[in-house]
Specification:
By secondary structure, this protein is mainly alpha-helical. It has two domains: about 15-30 and about 40-80; about 80-109, no CATH class. The chain is built from four helices and no strands. It has helices at about 5-30, 45-75, 90-95, 105-109. The chain is elongated. It starts with a helix and ends with a helix. The structure holds zinc ion. Zinc ion binds near residues 83, 85, 86 and 103.
């Protein structure tokens, strides 16, 4: 069993782009909530709540982006797909579902 590094890299690059686009969009919304044409922003409380939600989403997207970037550098230095705890090969299925996984199933618990 071996990992297709090229495919993994492609997946990671796609994810990276997705997260970067998402972060840009959320940042835009937070800075210019009035640009949101589908929403009514008269209600400030709703607007603040929405911004809170967006801030959370952005924190999440930034965190995921860091994972993705780490995974990409692990591809470069040849440690991609190895569990950080036991050093064993991470299950292929797991990597397919989560290309930036750093732990095998056993140690991800
Ligand atoms: Zn492990």
């Amino acid at each position: 069993m071996s990992i297709d590094l090229q495919a993994a890299k492609q997946d990671l690059l796609t994810l990276k782009e997705e997260y970067e686009t998402r972060i840009d969009k959320i940042e835009d919304h937070i800075q210019n909530p009035q640009d949101d044409l589908n929403e009514h922003w008269e209600d400030q409380a709703i607007s603040y709540r929405q911004n809170d939600m967006r801030t959370n989403l952005m924190v999440e997207a930034r965190q995921s982006l860091i994972y993705v970037e780490n995974a990409l550098s692990r591809i470069e230095n040849g440690t991609y797909g190895k569990c950080e705890v036991c050093g064993e090969q991470i299950e292929e299925q797991r990597l397919q579902a989560l290309p930036y996984a750093t732990l095998c199933m056993e140690h991800a618990e």
